[in-house]
Structure formats: C-alpha cells, structure tokens
Amino acid sequence: MCGIVGLFLKKDALRPKLGDMLTDMLITMTDRGPDSAGIAIYGDEHGKLKITVQSDTPDTDFAGLEGALAAAVGAPVTIRVVDTHAVLTLPLDTEAAALAFLEDRKLRVMGVGESMEIFKEVGLPKDVAERFGLRAMGGSHGIGHTRMATESAVTTLGAHPFSTASDQCLVHNGSLSNHNDMRRKLAKKGIYTKTENDTEVGAAYISSRIAEGATLGQALEGTLKDLDGFFTFVTGTKNGFGVVRDPIACKPAVMAETEDYVAFASEYRAFADLPGIEGARVWEPEPATVYFWER
Amino acid sequence: MATTELREVNTTLQSAAKAQVNEPYVIVNPRGSHAMACGLDGPLNVTVKGSTGYYTAGMNKEASITVEGSAGPGVAENMMSGVVTILGDASQYAGATGHGGLLNIKGNASSRCGISMKGIDIVVHGNIGHMSAFMAQRGNLVVLGDAGDALGDSLYEARLFVRGTVKSLGADCVEKEMRAEHIEILKELLERAGADAKPEEFKRYGSARTLYNFHIDNAASY
Amino acid sequence: MDKTPQTLPRQSWTFSNETNSEIRRAAATGIYDIRGGGAKRRVPHFDDLLFLGASISRYPLEGYRERCDTSVTLGTRFAKKPIELKIPITIAGMSFGSLSANAKEALGRGASAAGTSTTTGDGGMTNEERGHSTQLVYQYLPSRYGMNPDDLRRADAIEVVVGQGAKPGGGGMLLGQKITQRVADMRSLPVGIDQRSACRHPDWTGPDDLEIKILELREITGWEKPIYIKIGGARPYYDTALAVKAGADVVVLDGMQGGTAATQDVFIEHVGQPTLACIRPAVQALQDLGMHRKVQLIVSGGIRNGADVAKALALGADAVSIGTAALIALGDNDPKWESEYQKLGSTTGAYDDWHEGRDPAGITTQDPELMKRLDPIAAGRRLRNYLNVMTLECQTIARACGKSHVHNLEPEDLCALTMEAAAMARVPLAGTDWYPGKPGF
Fold first, then answer.
1. What is the pLDDT of residues C237-268, one digit of tens each?
2. Assembly ipTM
3. Residue A249 and residue B111: Cβ atoms within 8 Å?
4. Do A41 and A179 fall within a single domain?
5. DSSP bridge pairs for A175
6. Which residue of A184, B3, C367, C417 is 20 to 30 Å from A134, comparing CA positions?
7. Cα angle vertex C415, ends C410, C416, to 5°?
8. Do C209 and B53 touch (CB under 8 A)?
9. Dihedral of the CA atoms A94, A95, A100, A106 (nearest 10)?
10. Rounded to an integer, what distance in angstroms lies between the CA atom of residue C372 and that of residue C375?
C-alpha cells in the first residue's frame, strides 16, 4: 500500500533536474507511504557496470571495499559512497565475480545495471531523499516509491524499488494474493527472493519471464494472468518504463504527458509542481492494459 | 491552498454555507488536495481553479462547486443535493453513493462512475470507465460518449443513458425501450448540464431485475 | 436357536445426521444456507483461561468498600470530543432492518441507562435509536445505506466498518422478507427484493486510500468525533497496525464468534479466527507502534459475562462490545417462545433464521405484529441489568487481583487450561511458566 511516482524525460536539457523533480513528487506521496522510501534513477551509460550496495554499518563495510573488490575481480573499481549506500563502478564482464565477492562480504545488493542506481531506506520520504542527496541527481528517467507496509517487515530490503535483474526494477501499489505460491514456483526454477515481500515476487516473475525470452511487454501482460490480487505496477528498464494495473484497477494511477516528459503518480498531487502541468494531457491508465514509454 | 491549510479552507466554506450568505468563493492553487470543499451544508458558490485530489465536494448539500481542472477519486461522493461541475476529467468512483443533486463532468470519468448511486444525477460529457453504475440503486447516469466494460452490473433501479458505444453490459443490465417519459427526463438533464446532445440519440439501460430474488438458474450471475 | 449377534447401527462421525441434512437441503434448494448469529462450533475461548487472584504475594481489594473503576475514554488520539463511558462494555453495530425499531430503541435505552454507547448498523440511523442513545456510534459501511452528512454530524463517533468477525472479507445478502417499505426507503431499494451487500467500500481500497477517507470524514465533522475502524478477525496484527497508520482513534476487533444478521453458514463457520486468538496479535501491533492505550482497542465476538470482559481487558483490550448477548438479554431465543420456535423447525437457543423476519421474540423482524411483542422499556431495563451484572462481575475479578481499575488487569494475572488457549492468549499453561511458542524454550 503505497505511493508511486515516475518521470521519463523526453528532452535532454531537463536531465540535470530529474532528481529535483522526482524528489518533490516523492515527498508529496508521504501520506500514502510513511514507512520507507526508495528511488531508482537511470543516468547516462558509460559502458560500465554499476552495482549499488547497502550496509547498516557503512563506515566499516565500505572502508577499503574498492581495493578489495578490484583485487577480487582483477579490474579497476571506483566507489561513490552515498550515506548507507555505495555505487561501485567496474567493467561489464566482471559482474558474476563482483556479485560473488559482495555476497561473501554480506553486503546487500540493491541493484545492478549499466545505467540504474537504486537508493532506499526506512524513514520518511523527505529524510530518505535528503540522506541520499536525490535532488542533485541527474538522469533520463526515474521511479520512486513511498511505502505503507502491509504484511512484510519495515526494513531497508522491504522498501521498493525491487530489482531482480540488470537495469530492471519494479515498484508496486496494492497487495498480491498468490505471491507465496508464485514464490515457490520461481524457486523451483532456481530464482530465489530475498524478502517476504509480495512485490519482490512480482519483480522476480517479470525478470524470470524476460530471462526466458519474453519481451518486457509480454512479461507485464503475463502479470495479468499469473499474479492475483490488486496491483498497479511500474517497472523501470534501461530505456524507459512500463505501467500495468490489474483488471479490477482499484489502486489509483494517473499519468501526465507534455512535450518535455511523461509523469506517473498515484495521485495528481504529485504533479502539482511539474513545469507546464497546466497544459499537460492528464489521464488514468486503463485496467489490464500495458503501457510503455521508451526512448 | 499554497499558503492556507485545508482545515481553514473547509472551515471557512462550511461556516459560509451554513450561514446561507451565498457569496462566491474562489480557491486558487488547489495542488490536488484531498477533501476540498467537503461537507458544505447550504447554498454557496465555490470555484476551484485547478485540479483536486480525493473526495472533492464530498457529501455536498445545496452548494454549487465548480472545479476548473480535473478531480481525483470519489468526487461528490454521497452528495445529497446541489451541483458539482468538473470542467476536466473525473477519476474513479465519481458520484459514488450520491443521494441527490447533479454531478456534471465535462470531460471523461474513470472506472466505477456512479457506483452504488442512490438518487444522484450524473452527466458525463465524455466517456466512462469500467464497472460504472455497479449496484446503482436510484438516479440517472447520462453519458454522451462511450461506456467501458460491465456497465450497470447488479443494477437496481437507476437509469443509465449512453449515447456512444457500451463495451459490455454487467450482470442483470439490459437495454430498455426509450419511452416518452425517459426522453423527458433526459431532455431536462441535458439542458441542466448544458450538454449539446439530443435525447433521441441515447439508448437506455436498466435492470432486468432477474437478481432481485434468488433463483437457482441465475446462480452464475452472483 | 440363537440369533446371530448384530452390531448396533452406527452413525458416521464424518457424515453426521446434521451434515447429511445440510447436503439434502443444498440439493433441494441450490443455494447455500444463510443464517444469523455467529460461529456455533467450539473454538478455544475465554473459558479456557483462569484468573490467578491474590493471596500473600499480592493483596486483594475489599469487595464492597474499595474502589475499582470501570470508566473508559475512547478516541483520545485525534478527536476533539472523545467518548466517555462508565463501563468498558459497548453495544455492537446492529442495523435497523435486521432488528426491529423496538429492539433498536431497547438497545439505546439499556445502554444509556448503564452509561455506555450503542451503534447503528447497515441501514442508517433511526430517530428512535438516536433519541434513546446518549452515546451513539454511526457505522460507515460499504453499502452506505442511509448515509448522510446530517446523521454523521449528530453521531458521537463514526465507525468505518471494514469487516466483521462472522465474515471477514465478505459482503452479504439480506433476503427480501425484511425489506419492508420503511427499510427499503432508508436504503433506497425496491421493497421486497433480496438486498446484496458489497464486501468492499465503493470509493476506497487499502490503507493508503483509507487514510484519505478518514481525512474527509474528519473534515466533514470538524475533527470532533472519534473515528473507529472495525475489522474482522482475519489478520489482526497487520490490520490493527494499518488501521493505526491510516489514522484510527479506536480499533474494533471482531472475532469469528461475532454475530451477523444474515450470512452464508459456510462463511460463519470457516472463515476468520477465534476471538481469543485475535487479541494478542492486535495488542502486539499497538505496542510495536507505541500506541497501546493511545489508540483504544475494543474486542467483540462471544463476550457473555464479566469474566469474559475481565479476560479481554487483561489481554490488552480497552473495552469489549456485545451483540448476540445483548439480543439474548432483550429476549432473543427465550424459552417462552419454544412452541413457536418448533413450528419454525427450530428450538430455543438454536433459532438463527434471523434473515427470514419471523422471529417469535419480535427482535429480528420487521413484521408489525411480531414487533409488538417486544416492549422496548422492559427490554431496555433487562439489558441495563445485564450490563450492570457484567460490570460487577468484572470488578469482582479485578478487585480479587488487587486492581483499582479494571484496565490494570494484565496477561500475567491469567493462566490457561489448555495448550490451545495458552498458545493463542500467550498465557502460561496452568501450573507452568510455559506456553507454546514462548521464546527461550
């Protein structure tokens, strides 16, 4: 049960302002989700791999991390520490070795990708945004989430977005009713989730379908058949984002489009400060219909 | 609303409505706020310059409220009387459980428009979404555009008038003959709503009343 | 010549006569069995708990001399006008429609005389019950029958009903016999039809939307009235936590023994958790959020006497609510109507076809002749007496445990007679310091 925001920029000139705009949208959704907040931000690609990791004891865990990781993968590594998170940048072909090393060190991997970075923590959205300096972050598109936890724990790992594949992430408003069974089905295929959270199962379902050869569109279509319950999903990819609501479509969703951007939110309130919103086309996504915005 | 708290806005409007002064009020910068101008109990003209959040004009009595923008979920929910006008679109549950008055939506309305309505009149100049008029009990829902899936599911005695297409009818909702009395009702409603349409262009839908008392052959519709 | 010995005819435990009669009924009618009341099966209950009392290590209060308060304030979190009750026992929501106007009036009279509140139901507020109830809680239900802002403002508190213990997650169907002209008018329905009730509210879904709905209700009523959220005993930990997060002043938690006017028997008997099992998780949620005693918890579903009240309070509730017990106090299922119950194919104590509107006691009916059988003044007096007895009983127990206020009863004042009750109430099995699931064992 939550608030969702998303912003996809059509014009490069706005890129430096992405974090600023998303932060305002995120804070407006505080009432819908005061427990935790998170954001996935898609920046420029450099042909490198970015791994976002989290630690509750960043001072000790991140000290000397880049050197140790570089030695483990046999390639240069740079590190950018942001509060409890660190973004590690390294060559693309080192992914498997790097993830094994990080798992060994018991660091929590928030997300992996060429362009995606994920930051999420427990707390009010405004505090979370401040800790990570979200306002200063630029990029092409981003997705944010504020969480009111229903059945799973209020923890960093329980916060959204959930990422279960490279450059893919998912946020969710609603409550799935068959996630335990789906979790078992995915586990039989060797796909294991890290939390008790229903949304992570949704994310894992989508990435497993894509790994099996489905397009993102087909995977999102599949959620309508294979996932039961109430959901508005927004999924981020390297090139854009997709939106789908369950066939009953009780959980709110509103979209706005101008020449400059496409915006998504749980409520119109989140759009109030967007430039040119007065002239924007504003509408609600239809139930059981998949939408995409890609560059 | 950029500088005034919601409680202050509503207290001012509610006292003015109660005092029957009937002065015009204008709210600027609504910023999608919830529960705006709700619970008014008396004649008052309120104009909101911009888009609103959930439950705008909720439980309205007698007041005339105009939103010069779009309205969020549950606009004019449980309205008793008065007129609520939305110049833009309305989100889901518009006019839910309304007992009376007129809800005039110039744009489109989303899903569940007029759900469980109990006597309100709703005119939508554009289209309406799925499950509209679900369990609608009384009143009139007029749609100049098209209706989505499952229109009028489990309908009671509300009248539904649609000019465009209906994607599908819900359980126990059927097309009905448009008689002179219905043309009359519709004509009056279209006039009040300032709608540029002729009553003869509409089709009427209502309850087949097969679910009114349980019968074994209808079990699949429950 | 001796006959070959024969075994006695043996009835099947699985296919009992009762089960077989239901199979035959289903085969003949094609519709599930609808009835009133709550779960009839035996489930672990307050009877499986005992109070320890005081002796040398603790000192009891003198029964007829030393004070033992029973007052309770509901709605201290946000409401400008919290509800002050003299006793921690309220009357649960029961609709005009399912109950006769006389029965509603009697509930109002009895509750007011005892210093407590009564509650409307699915069908709106009547002048009779408003007039005779000094404290009236107005239910806000999915159907919104008869919902209007004037009644909202003349209520003393608003109870947003999300679910009830007899049917968490369910709506209902009230058969046409009880939809008389007055009931139909209040509900904007045609006379005599089967009324189908929705299971979800028409204009919100989930705690994030509920928070906004509560804001609207507060704005319409000037932030004066306590907002209760009533939940059925399904997932009490999460539901209590979410009600608090959405802004509730009071959480009403109804276990599976809680009654209903008309619901599928399969729902009543097979969905939801026993009241005893619901309390500790709900209290845990309140404690985890630092809201225990700040957001008040009212527990209902199978409360019958002062011992039940004391046990519910000891487990962490602030008050209890009674429905079925109040109807029995008014005269429901009274042996004096036995011959009439038999004509209806039932017997005293088992009559539960409340939806049919033929109640010989004149309580769950809209039939004008049957209604006359219930004198609202006399029935109200019986309810007052009963509430007073429950309160005295609860005080007696509290004093014996050395408490000057019934709210000072604690789980540690209890022991359990069965493993099941020990596990559900998280209270040690009698004679031990252990309960199933206790950490450290």
1. 999 999 999 999 999 999 999 999 889 999 99
2. 0.92
3. yes
4. yes
5. A230
6. B3
7. 130
8. no
9. 120
10. 7
